[in-house]
């Protein structure tokens, strides 16, 4: 049995590009960066970034093109595929991509992904009634 599975969580390095091929299918391409950190022998923290080319087809392509933005976090589940072609000079070129089977957007909708996310806390109303405060629970009142 063979297995070709890729699962990554990372951030988009650019906005997705959506195109429609002659057969009418949508295809969206984008890039996702993933980080790997470790401590070397001297105790220094090291970090390496990997960049992944991602391709989504059909309905996933439309969703990715509409909702994903540069800097947004995304989970991608798919398979690895390498394409080859000859460039204008006749030189063979290769591109390894993750073909999306499943995608989960990990950022909250409506939040600007290039800015750090901040929790919005509504101001306290000083005229609020004290009866709305939580009542203390007595352990003996719990039925189990």
UniProtKB/TrEMBL annotation:
Q: GO CC terms on record?
A: nucleoid
Q: Which Gene3D superfamilies match?
A: Nucleic acid-binding proteins
Composition-biased stretches, type Acidic residues, lie in: 132-144
Q: Where is this region: Disordered?
A: 108-144
The GO biological-process annotations, alphabetized, read as: DNA replication
Record-linked PROSITE patterns: SSB
Q: Which CDD domains match?
A: SSB_OBF
For molecular function, the Gene Ontology terms on record are: single-stranded DNA binding
The answer to whether keyword ATP-binding applies is no
Q: What is this protein called?
A: Single-stranded DNA-binding protein
């Amino acid at each position: 049995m063979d297995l070709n599975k890729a699962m990554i969580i990372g951030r988009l390095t650019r906005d997705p590009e959506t195109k429609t091929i002659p057969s009418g299918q949508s295809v969206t391409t984008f890039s996702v960066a993933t980080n790997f950190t470790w401590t070397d022998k001297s105790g220094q923290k090291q970090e390496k970034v990997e960049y992944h080319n991602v391709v989504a087809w059909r309905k996933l392509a439309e969703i990715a093109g509409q909702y994903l933005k540069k800097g947004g976090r995304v989970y991608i589940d798919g398979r690895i595929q390498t394409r080859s072609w000859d460039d204008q000079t006749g030189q063979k070129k290769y591109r390894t991509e993750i073909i999306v089977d499943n995608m989960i957007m990990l950022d909250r909708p409506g939040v600007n992904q290039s800015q750090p996310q901040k929790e919005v806390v509504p101001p306290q109303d000083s005229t609020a009634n004290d009866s709305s405060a939580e009542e203390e629970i007595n352990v003996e009142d719990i039925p189990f």
